[in-house]
Amino acid sequence: MTSPIDPRAAALLALTSFPALAAQPAEDLGSKWGTETEERKYYRVVSLPIPEELTVEAGAFTTLPDGRIAVGTRHGDIYLVDGVDDPKPEPTYTLFASGMDEIFGLEAVEGGLLVTQSCELTRVSDADGDGRADRFDVVSAGWGYENYHEYAFGTGPDKDGNVHVALGLSYSYHSRALFRGWVLKVTPEGETIPVASGLRSPGGIGPDENGQIFYIESQGPWNSSCSLKAVTEGSFHGHPVSFNWYPFAPNLGEAPTTPNSGTRILTEKERVPELTPYAVVFPYIRMGRSIMGFTVDDTGGSFGPFQDQMFLGDFSLSVILRATTEQVNGVWQGACYPFREGLSTGLLDVHFSPSGKLIAGGTNRGWPVRGLEPFALERLEWTGVTPFEVERITINPDGFDVRFTLPLDAETASKPENWAMGTFTHIYHGAYGGPEVDRTVPEVRSVTVSADGLSARVVLDTLKKGHVHEFDLVALRSAAGDPLLHRDAYYTVNEIPAPRAHPVPEDPRWLTYPAKDGGEDAPHVVFVVGDQEYRSEECTPMLAEMFAERHGMHTTVLFAQDEQGRVDPTSKIKWEDKEVVHDIPGLEYLEGADAVIFYTRLLSLPEEQLARIYSYLDSGKPILAIRTANHGFIDWDYRVNGERVPFGEGVLGGSFRGHHGNWSRDSTRGSVVAENAGHPVLVGVDDVWGTTDVYRTYPEGGALPARCVPLLMGQPLVGRTPDGPPNENKIALPVAWTRTFTGSAGQESRVFHTTMGSARDFECEDMRRLLLNATLWGLGREGDIRADLEVAPVGPYEPLESGFNYEKLGVRPRPPVDFR
Amino acid sequence: MPLASPSGPDSRALAEPLAVDGREELARLGCAACHDDLAGAGQRLAPDLSLAAARLRGDFLLRYLEAPAEAQPGTRMPDLMAGRSSSEKAAVARELAAFLASEAASTDGSPAALVGDPGRGDTLYHRVGCVMCHGERPSAGAPAPLPEGGRSLDHVAGKYTSSGLAAFLLEPLGHRPGGLMPDMHLDRQEAADLAAFLDPAPAGASHALDATLVDAGREHFRTLRCAACHGGMGGVQPPIPFPAGPLGAGCGAEVPPAGLPSYDLSGAQRAALVAAAGQLDEPLSTEAQLTSTMAALRCTACHERDGAGGVPASLDRFLTTDEPDLGEPARRPPTLSGVGGKLRREWLERVLHDGASVRPYMHTRMPVFGDANVADLPGHLEALDAEEPLVFPRPEGEDWKEAREAARTMLGTTGLGCVSCHQFNTKDAPGFQGVDLITTPERLRERWFRDFMVKPTSKVADIVMPESWPGGEPVYDTLLGADTDRQLGAIWHYLALGRSARNPRGIDQPRWDVNVEGRARLYRGRSGIAGFRGVAVGFQEGLNYAFDANNGALAGLWRGDFVSVNWNGQGAGDFNPRGRAVQLPRDLAFAPGADTPEPWPVRPVKTEENPVNPDPTYPRQHGYRFRGYHLDGDGVPTLRYSIGAVEVEDRSVPVREGERTVLRRSITFDSPEAMPMVFRALAGLVEVPDSGGFVFGKLRLTVAPLSPLKPKTFELRSVESGSELLLHLPLPAGPSTLELTYDLAD
After folding, report:
1. Segment 701-720 of chain B within 8 Å of chain A by CB
2. Contact A127/B630, CB-based, under 8 Å?
């Protein structure tokens, strides 16, 4: 295992600078990844020969409607290239247009090509149809051009027809001509609108798979490394020298506050709200030195397992990288990954061919380049063999989800020590480039591998905002035992997603337990509680706390309570007192709940409260019910298609018909129904015993309704100890099952019911596990169920006994908080 | 499943020396295709039959199916119908052929064939290396003997259709993936030429399909187990265990029983096969594997390794080069002795898999054999030839500067003169064009490089390369403390700079000229004469002009050649007139309205003290916009721009006026209403000669006599820099054209 701070990094860090955009002293190019031998098994590099008499320093590509590729060059020519997808390519090159000025943007549009050249955005077309361009119409020349280093990179039209043009500074430090260091938007009407400032020396610009515009920034002043940046209206990208043009951009108002040099970018963002942090940092040299062009994999799988990701070409190192992006709290960020080294020239742009191969081209002129060819076109093609790679990394409130292209070996991946991680940031300053600073080594708290083995949820002690988080995964293995093709990945954290807040406000009338370590997708599970016999008020808070603390769920316990707001397990029921009306405050929160667990007994709720429950039953969300819940309500009038549906028989699949076991004298041994032993709810459940007796839910000689899947059979035992002998006079009856239920809106819910479940029953570990599994299953998260899920109560758990002799048992009304 | 070894000490002893050949023989014959317990021997893939029907002649296919070895001596294909009557054979062959035709790929997968030239094919055949395996093919006289282990091509003329042969030669690995015929990097024309040379006959007849024959053929395909070797057409049968003991009864028998394929094996072959089969559990040594692969792929037909192989004397004259003075290594494929210690692993892979090459002057081509067929070679060579690694320490700081300068000096013609015989950074050397030095660190290992530099002939016999560190002592003893390793390290790191390494003395930047050939030529780029948004227009007549599109001004004219362009280094294509140009003012040229601006709005000028454009919206604020240009059929551009509401088309062409070629400029205004327009035609030291017109330096400007639009007045007003010539133009509503003549003195 390597140390988290890779010594390779130090060895590779070169002295100065990004070469592509200023006259630089000669430099060494640093080491390679050393992965070329392996890479070629998955991605072949095929040369696209260029006739000897042509110079094709490709700067931009586009695909024509007829399938040919148009190539715009640094020499200002546009060639139409036929045959790039042939098995043994011998493309033909037709000169379509020439005489333009450094083409770094090319897009086929109706009737012609949209060309971004240094001097202007031009529409080039062939009016007389002889195959050669003869019309060159200026679309926009709305920027100054007074220095050779002032390159212009352009996108194609977005869905609204707007084109974005990114304009490099004059040299690295100056903005001496109008809008140098800006992004301009050119509308279909030809209006040129300033959009963003603070660029240094852009490489490519274009949309990601969501249509968000990104551009590539080069290492240099105010940029210690190359990076990908998200362009939005009014964004400022870090280099303040271009503020002088704000008076010419009245649509954007005053110039932003000038950032201080020598701090950190997120520190300055506090002062300069327009400052847009680097979305993806490419650690210098390790991940390229002058990234110049990118495209998005829209090949639908023809190029392998990286659909919707960015592929980027690097000029100096002749390598191709990948990047993924996501938006967190309104800010863009993401990760980058090595992809393929060993290209033949300095890459200026990359582009997918009609058959889903990646065309890469450029030149090695002017700045240091690893590839030996003065210029070249090459094609990368997937061999059809899937490499074992990090597919993408996304952030969680407490760490990362790391997805892989092939299943992981869960054993190695589950060990936190196999995840070597480090973080660093850069100094944000006006000097050229800069070192990696503020290094930290986060502690990997836990790693959970998904059931399919394709992703791992990594929990860290802390995420560092403003830091690149490095992953060195050399120790991981695929399920087939192979190491990763590329061990490194780098995620730039600008924002940390907030855990989803508990949707229910704290209130003395109920209990809420916010999810610990829950992500934005933490589910909300509500217990609806009110019985007079089995101490539901004691076990449900224990379960709610355990679910929240150990399994990332927001939980709420809503209690039936008296007029003083006390949970009253001694309350009368309607059969005893016709006037009684129970009250469960907070049922409005059933709307939006992800799961509800019912544990009520013979309650008479006001109509508006029942309506909340009926509405939940129609929602298609899971319905879970414990013991007395199958006779949980009196005055129940839930209807589906006009027909009354009782809660027990109709929704749950059975209700209390009598004590099959000897009430308060027997106990129950639950045993797994063999034919359903593979059901997810039973994972790890093999030792169920409780002091409650077995309920009969169907007539003698009958059976569970056909749509019920029996999970546990309850055998009455003689006496109330787990080792008591089976009561030979009593057969086993189902005590836990699942089914589905379709409510009046036609939505189908998953239903789970156990007729066991007194507070004392939940002292049994596998009873708790049963309910947790059932909840996860109900939520559709059976993939997260494992035999070893932690189900220990969070605190001490010593519930009172069941029964109605309240005084003797010490049961009395208490405020909800007492059950916390 | 373990295989039984032949028993007894004798057979064991026999097996030892034969094991290598036997194993390759198992692979070559594809025994594992039926006997899956022989999979350890590997299998050279058989041809893809989906291409056979399209590429082969119908009559050949029939003859071949009936009796493969007769139709094509030396084929790996067994006789599948040994023992059957000839009429039966013919019937089965017809049915199989029909089946193959029905299963054929819809096209043969190759682009439309070009017309081949047998003469060019002859030259190619004897130049790129075909002769090393297939022998000389004299156009007249007796056929030359085949090289040892070589393969006759006599059957080829009758085998392929000529387009089929060209398609095969273009991509041999697509048709025959086993790699025994490698890809020679032929382009389409070369493939056609070579095909025309090998088989000058026209294409053969196509097959008519008969559905009944097809079905019968499919059944033969299945029962004859064709699918075992030729995949993709169904009919796969379960594997057959390889028999224990000597080959007596099955397909390996001296006379195999009817219904089994006959390989016509010699006794020695059979013994070798049995021996090899018995030893499959014992891994071959790396050396044995390498030797086996190199023999099978015939690497040694061209390359010598450790004293074995190499081009025989009889074929030596076919090794040719563009650089004969560079000696034997310029024409002879390099030795493979120690090549794993010479080349970096990645480079070996690029050569073997991708066909990378750094010796364009050598005519013999290094082919590619297919990824699967060479997959093990780089690893084997690396393992066998490994030398103790050497890493030149990297100089830092001041030392690095010194080292860099020293390396540049040594490489240059006033130093050790390396660049006299080597290209540098793709630029030609002044003398011979040897391997580009800049490729060195990408290809070579440091240890080999050092030893080679100290004693070149120790690594490459016959090399024409001076010893600059004889006996490890530097010849150049005034640099880097006369320390050999420092000097070689400095050169290594200098070359590792790649493109950013400055040219050593003796290497010149090439010059890029843009020339006019026939059509008029337009070139855009920055320039001293026309600013950053300059447009240069050149004419065949040798009269050229430049237009400043930023400001809308004719910026200059010159006679002679068109422009040179800076495409060296970082050069962004800036251009320079190749003749002496007259420079005209590059300020805005037009002002609409009755009042002449006072002073004329000249373009902003930046200074060293104030380098930021002081007037960034010039000339837009004055109503000027460049709109683009269009080209006529001769490539002559019409420049388009607007001045306020007036649209302008501006076109200049050379015309003959008496003895002189002058530039006729037609400026067409399209104005929405009648209005005055001021045109600042010249500025500076403008003279008004008696002979008419206006003279500025070598340029005489006149309004053409037939100009439809005539200036109302000519105003020559004095300004600081001399004078300004202002033409007051009365624009009518709609289009009107002003014609001017620019006559540049020779």
Report:
1. none
2. yes
